[in-house]
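Weekly sync, protein design subgroup
Attendees: M.S., D.O., the rotation student, P.L. (late)

Item 1: inverse folding check
M.S. brought a backbone from last month's batch and wanted to see whether the design step gives back something sensible before we order anything. D.O. pointed out we never logged the input encoding, so this time it goes straight into the notes. Structure tokens as presented (132 positions):
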């Protein structure tokens, strides 16, 4: 079934949606990020966000299991920067190391990018944890 999307403010067709397939051409998929200066527990809702940005972590942090209903292939990205002091990092049980151990602490004033992909029931594989 094909549906036509109308913008009633300008009386124009803005898109066509086919229930079976939707293709976007020349469109940008803007990622949704939650931003916080510091928190002791970070929980990313996959229903609302694609990741989180922590700009000045001032205490040890637990990256809790994501909430929402992820589907296989969903990716979350966490950018974590401390406030000039090394901070311990712990992960919820749904995060699994994939190829390398999960990071256990921050590096002073460096941004740690943690990328995790949902691959099975209640499991996010941490694909990379890179310092910048």
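Designed sequence read out in the meeting:
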């Amino acid at each position: 079934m094909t549906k036509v999307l109308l913008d009633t403010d300008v009386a124009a067709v803005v898109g066509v949606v086919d229930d079976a397939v939707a293709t976007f051409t020349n469109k940008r998929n803007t990622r949704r990020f939650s931003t916080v200066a510091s928190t002791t527990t970070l929980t990313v809702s996959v229903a609302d966000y694609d990741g989180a940005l922590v700009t000045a972590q001032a205490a040890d942090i637990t990256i809790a299991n994501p909430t929402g209903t992820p589907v296989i292939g969903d990716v979350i990205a966490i950018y974590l920067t401390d406030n000039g002091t090394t901070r311990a990092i712990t992960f919820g049980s749904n995060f699994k190391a994939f190829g390398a151990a999960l990071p256990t602490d921050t590096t002073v004033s460096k941004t740690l990018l943690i990328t995790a992909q949902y691959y099975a029931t209640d499991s996010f594989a941490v694909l990379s944890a890179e310092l910048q």
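Discussion: The chain has one domain: 29-131. The two ends are 47 Å apart (CA to CA).
Action: P.L. to compare against the previous round before Friday.
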